[in-house]
Design goal:
Elements lengths: L14 E9 L5 E10 L2 E10 L4 E9 L14 E8 L3 E13 L12 E12 L5 E3 L2 E14 L2 E16 L4
Antiparallel strand pairs: 1-2, 1-10, 2-3, 3-4, 4-6, 5-6, 6-7, 7-9, 8-9, 9-10
Length: 171
Amino acid sequence: MPTNADELRHTGAEVEAWWWWGHSAAADAGVFVGLELRGQRFDYWAGLVRAGEPYLYIEELDGTGLRAGLEIKPSEMWADHQCDVPFRQWSVGNEAHGVLLDDPIEAVRRAFGTPVAVTFDIEWYSDVDVTPIAGGYEQVGEVDARIEFVEGVVAIDGPAHRMHVWGTPYS
């Protein structure tokens, strides 16, 4: 079974990744954040999907600017991922510019869209034990997220999931 120390970085791991995602109770909006570390470099993704709205996508690939813990500060954004209570609560946030994509498949091609300033404020919490998986663990929980745009706030409260894995790179 994972221990409290497993919630934090595994310094000797060649690669380590955290993922948080959830959706509204009505399943009409969903949010995700992912962070993968490789030494002092990282990949970061975040997104928001809403019924009838463009897909919001944020990415920073092969980034630099890793700070203490799981805080990242590349030149054009900021994000942090704080374990508040091991296996019970995480605070995840970012301040960035993303792109609004009319066709979500564009995120896997070349994410050109309408630039937009956005802030994520996500509380992820659970009272369910983790499930060990190969190289880490996963857990179900709840998400309480506020995604702020200049035009207003999108609130997402509902079921959520997270995963944390570490070890050697996959090929």
